[in-house]
Amino acid sequence: MNKTRWFALGIAVVLLAVSTGFRFMSTLFSTDLEAMFEMPQEQYQQEVIEEGTGNKIAVLELDGVIQDVNTSSVLNTGGYNHDRFLKKLEDVGEDRTVNGIILRVNTPGGGVVESDEIHDKIVEIKEEHNKPVYVSMGNTAASGGYYISAPADKIVAHPATLTGSIGVIMQSYNFAELADDLGVDMNTIKSGEFKDIMSATREMTDEERGILQTMIDDMYADFVQVIVDGRDMSESKVRELGDGRVYTGSQAADNGLVDALGSLEETAAMMREDFEWPNAQLVEYKTGFGWNSFLGGTVQSMVGGEEANLMAIQELLQQSDGPRAMYLYSK
Question: Looking at the domain assignment, is residue 69 inside a domain?
Fold first, then answer.
């Protein structure tokens, strides 16, 4: 056996070892530890941010990548949990003691379906429960983060918030040349011409690219319509602004994507003034404590907020059997 073949064999062994290690870590991270330890969890904790009497304004925090992939994952439990957030949004909407809702949005976006489910739930709360919904943007409220903000009665951003990134993205890897260099062949048996579309082991054809572009264009049109409806903005204006770029909060205010600049407290003050609730109490609704939340929060504090977001994005991509369309801003 010549040196080239020995080298290729060595690379293959290393890749196998890395793959095995990664599968082990993925299994560990995806274990439902809360179910394993059977620790009960209180549904919600109410933390008073500002004291008041009479009316109540509920603050719900959406922090992290909007995803619904293995919500029991260690990486995800301390951050965003899609099912849990939708349930909390629904419960707060139905809570007769709550008069208004502020969503504190800090997310680079995420899945197309997940973002749309949150959007629809916000519209439902406004229409069926007649409650105002304001959005207070944090560091980032981009792509899917802006999609879910669009139907709000008022959007308030910090001047340095990163928002916008209006658009859809779908990505995959192509390892064809590397496989050729290593002498690795992929055998594919398929029932139809496009069954392995976006395969990582060969070049994409022009026809396949056209099929996927049509899908992306349709999803983008839905994104545009959400902003047209939510912001009362012309389609041509939305498409002009929606070329995928991000805007600072100040830029977004200048072009009409947000209504005002300010903090969470200033957003609450705006709601009090707009609805004549001068003494309204400001209360944050937090998910109750549980083992998963504790462990997930510990992991995220160890890796840091930005790194945790990147790991969550990686998890979102890896948990799917194939590439998926996303409303996602990633650097």
Answer: yes
* Model pLDDT for residues 251-285, shown as the tens digit of each residue: 999 999 999 999 999 999 999 999 999 999 999 99
**Which residue do the tokens 């003050």 mark?**
269
Q: Are 139 and 218 in contact (CB under 8 A)?
A: no
What distance separates the 2 farthest-apart alpha carbons in the chain? 83
- Domain count along the chain: 1
Residue 309 lies in a domain: yes
Q: What is the pLDDT of residue 186?
A: 82
pTM, two decimals, is: 0.79
Q: What are the strands, taking DSSP E only, across 121-252?
A: 133-142, 154-157, 162-164, 246-248
pLDDT number for residue 193: 93
Task: Give phi and psi for 142, each to the nearest 5.
Answer: -110, 160
Structural domain including 145 reads 41-169+246-328
**Do 100 and 271 meet the contact criterion of CB atoms below 8 Å apart?**
yes
Cβ atoms of 297 and 81 closer than 8 Å: no
* pLDDT, tens digit, 9 for 90 and up, residues 315-331: 555 544 567 899 999 86
**What pLDDT does residue 115 have?**
98
Give the pLDDT confidence score for residue 330 in this predicted structure: 80
Q: Would you say residue 160 lies in a domain?
A: yes
SS3 content of the chain, % helix, strand, coil (to 5): 45, 20, 35
What CA dihedral angle connects 253, 113, 23 and 202, to 10 degrees?
A: -90
To the nearest whole number, what is the mean pLDDT of the chain? Answer: 84
Cβ neighbourhood burial of 35 (10 Å; 0-12, 13-18, 19+): exposed
What's 154's domain CATH number? 3.90.226.10
- pLDDT at position 68 is 86
User: Rounded CA gap, 197 and 179, in Å?
Assistant: 18
Amino acid at 173: Y
Answer yes or no: are the C-beta atoms of 153 and 122 closer than 8 Å: no
- Which are the catalytic amino acids? 143, 195
Considering the domain boundaries, does residue 259 fall inside one? yes
